[in-house]
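Report of the visiting student (M.T.), summer placement. My assignment was to run the structure pipeline on a short list of targets and document each run. The first record concerns GAF domain-containing protein.
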Amino acid sequence: MAEELHLDTTVSKAEQYRQLLPQIEALTSGEPDLTANLANTAAALRQAFNFFWVGFYLVKNEELVLGPFQGPIACTRIRRGKGVCGASWEQAATILVPDVEQFPGHIACSSDSKSEIVVPVLKDGQVVAVLDVDSDQLNDFDSDDQQALERLMPLVASWF
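After the run finished, the structure tokens were exported:
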């Protein structure tokens, strides 16, 4: 198990993700506990990119319920179709939001959040969780983030 991340911050963001994803896989390899793996994944993503907030919401009883995260306190429950996380769950699709103030129905868990990306975790064709990443900067996420985080989701799904 890796105890420290090794990233070259002088390379592109896409390359940093290429360096990070195998480290997350190594960090979680052989660990059967869902909470431990989600927690370390959230911590690795936040540490690597200094995101404002990184966490998982788990589908439980027709709601998204807050799971392991890194960052300030967060909304505990989100209904299907509500906010960016609920919309990602409902659509079973990644949603990238350059300016959260422009997203209809955005749930402001923190007024410091300015942009967001939410990626669904699919298991057997069903959304079982979503990864939510927030930035305190506008337009902080792009196709590099989307592609890399989507590549991470099959590993995350394997823990469910």
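Residues 37 and 84 are 23 Å apart (CA to CA). The helical segments are 13-28, 34-49, 83-91, 143-157. I thank the supervising group for their guidance throughout the placement.
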